[in-house]
Amino acid sequence: MKKVTEKKSDTISLEEKIRIFIGAYSNKELYSAGTIFILGIFILLINQIVLSVFLSPFFTLLLTIVSVLLMVVPVIILQYRHFQKMKNIEENFPNFVKAISEGLTSNMSLPQSVDYASRSNFGALSPYIDKMISQISWGISFEIAFRNMAKSINNHLITRAISTIIEAHTYGGKISKALDSIGKSVTEIEKLRRERISMISGQMMQGYVIFFVFVGVMIGLVAFLLPVLGSDAMGVGSGNVDLAAQYAIKFKHLSVLQGFFSGIAIGKLSEGSIAAGFKHALIMSLIGYVALTLATL
């Protein structure tokens, strides 16, 4: 019955997940990203409704790219900064666990060892440790304060490690040995992740090369092959110029889709996170769209 209650308390509702996700960013970051996003939408609408009538296709394209960048880049920057923050927390957590283990070796209790460890600097993890220490000083139990810390960080690896620490503290035993094992396992996981990134870097470059070849083929079709093909052979009765224009639009959309999903796949393979793939997706989609647009001007 006790285990069922503990599992229920560990469950995070969708509303709480959204609150934790938003709480990962400062109000300044959220307001700045929101303002730039709205500005991008405004520029895009004005460009498509009003300015496209008066401006040349080149400047219309330029304003479209700028507006899309204003909408997408701030979100990607926030996501990537959060991703880097999680990496920093995972790198510093084994050192935090090691400091707690040193305190336990000196015959301190677990809460005292945590307070001792909190005096060191652990990068992005330090604010969460300070918050946990404050909760303990206010009379909140060690288990609840540690669980609140895991929920605030909202990282699967850290949550599992903290749950193991709480179990070891609750049911007794040699806590220092359990902490040493946790620290070593987290360090080993981080080591394996870095090895995977180094091993997959070749495949990441291969993904970019394949995408550039794909864009090159599309440019060759639009700029050289389609204009010289007869409209009768393709079943289109609007002439060669219309044929190239029609397929250029389709190829542009295809290049954006190819770039987006290729970038997501590259980020997931190389860094283990879809958020990390957004930067690759943005770069590849923009390259494909701009290259095909310039080829048909």
Sheet with most strands:
none
Mean pLDDT score: 76
Radius of gyration: 27 Å
Which percent range describes the beta-strand content?
A: under 5%
Q: Helix count, per DSSP?
A: 12
Instruction: Find the count of extended strands (DSSP E, 2+ residues).
Output: 0
- Quaternary organisation: single chain
Q: What structural class is derived from the secondary structure elements?
A: mainly alpha
Determine the N-to-C terminus distance: 70 Å
Uncertain ranges: 1-10, 232-241
Helices and strands, in N-to-C order? Answer: HHHHHHHHHHHH
Shape: elongated
* Helix content, binned percent: over 70%
Describe the structure.
The protein has a domain at 196-297. It has twelve helices and no strands. It has helices spanning 2-10, 14-23, 27-54, 57-105, 110-117, 126-137, 142-153, 156-171, 175-228, 231-234, 240-271, 274-295.
Which structural traits does this protein have?
disordered N terminus, 297 residues, mainly alpha, 0% strand
Short description:
This protein has 297 residues and is mainly alpha-helical. It has 12 helices and no strands. Helices cover 86% and strands 0% of the residues.
Write the layout of secondary structure elements.
Blueprint: H1 2-10, H2 14-23, H3 27-54, H4 57-105, H5 110-117, H6 126-137, H7 142-153, H8 156-171, H9 175-228, H10 231-234, H11 240-271, H12 274-295
Helix pairs in contact: 3-4, 4-5, 4-9, 4-12, 6-7, 7-8, 8-9, 9-11, 9-12, 11-12
